[in-house]
Here is the input.
Amino acid sequence: MNYQKIYEDFISARKLSGKPGGYSESHHIVPKSIGGTDSKDNLIDLSARDHVFAHLLLAKIHGGPMFYAYWMMVSGCASYRARRNGELVRVPSHLVAIAKRKRSETMSATRSGENHHFYGINRSEEVRKKISVSLKNKYQDGYVCPTKGRVASDEERMAMSLRMKKRFNDGMAHPMLGKTHTPEARAKISAAQTGELHRNYGKPLSREHAENIGLAQIGIKNHAADMRIMKFSNKKIGEFIGYRSEFIRKYGLCKANIGRLVNGSQKQHKGWFFDGVAE
Here is the structure.
C-alpha cells in the first residue's frame, strides 16, 4: 500500500477544508526529525483525531523513530489533551498494541549497548550531585511517582516472571552476581532506608498480615528452626555442609533468598547453589 500517497492526499484534503472548528493541534507536515521546519508552509492545523491518523501514516511511511512519535500520540497524550478541550478521541486497541510493539523494537535497536547515549560514559561527581539535588527538590515540591502505590496484576507479574526466566535461561547474569557492596555503599543504603525514610515507617502491620508472616516462618520454613543438614556450593568459594542458619550467618547472605533456593523457586544467590539435603 502506498502510504506516502495516502498521506499526501490526506494533507491536501485538510488544506482545502481549512482549519477545523473547535479544538485543533498544529502538525508538522514534514516531521522535524527528518528535516522539517517550523515555517508556515510546513504547518497545518488538524483535529485531534486527524492528528493521530497523520502520525500513524508517518509511522507506516518512515518507520523507526516515527513509531515512537505515534506511540506518544496513542499512549494517552493526544486523547488526554483532546478530552481536556472537549473532544473525545478513541484509538483502537490493536493500533495501540502495534504502536507499543514497534516502539519497543525501535528503542531496543537504537538505544541498546553502544547505541545508548550514555554507553561508556560515567557521570562526574558534580553531575551526580546536581541530579540528586534536582530530584530532592522535585519531591519536596510535592511530586509523586506515577507508579507509587500501584500493584501489578497477576497477569503482569506472570509476564515479567516469564521474561526474566527466559533471559536467565539464555545466559543473562545478574549484574551483582559475585559482587558485594563496599562498606561505604552499604552505609549509604542503610542511611537511605532508616527511620522515616523507610517505606513502611509508621505503617503498622495488620493482624492478618502479621499472622501470614508467622505462618510463613513456622517449622522448616524458618531458617533458624530448620535443623536439616544441607549442602550448598559456590564455584569460587567451595562447598558448605551444615545448618541453613549457620550458612546464612557465615557468608552474610539474605535469608529470604536462601529460603527460595531451598524451596526451588530461585536457582542461585550470590553464586551459591543449593545441592540438596545431606543424607
Notes: Residues 65-84 form the longest helix (20 residues). The mean pLDDT is 84. The CA atoms of residues 24 and 46 lie 5 Å apart. The chain has ten helices and six strands.
